[in-house]
# Entry
Amino acid sequence: MDDYRQSFSSIEHTKIPYSYGDIQHETIFDQEQDRYLVMILGREPVPELSPTATRRVHGCLIHIDIIDGKIWIQRDGSEEGVATELVKAGITKDRIVLGFRSEELRKDSEFA
# Structure
């Protein structure tokens, strides 16, 4: 389990800055409950309203839980996919559950 936790802290999505707006990543790691979130927070431009208009951005980009010894990806709003990053970090696909997909779709995937 500690290998899983270590892998979460190295997720690349927390290190890539947004190309527009003032948007930050916030990591929320609850190791006691084994819940791991990457949140986005800030302001982004809304040029269709005016050149200086902005809107607030706040939401969950990635949500991962460890349940019964497996990594459950509950939300993945990343481009490349956090499952791909976890596999690159050495976690086998049979330990990763794509929780954001229905059970029917998970059966046909190469993941748990």
Observations:
- The helical segments are 2-9, 82-88, 103-107.
- The two ends are 17 Å apart (CA to CA).
- The first strand starts at residue 22 and ends at 30.
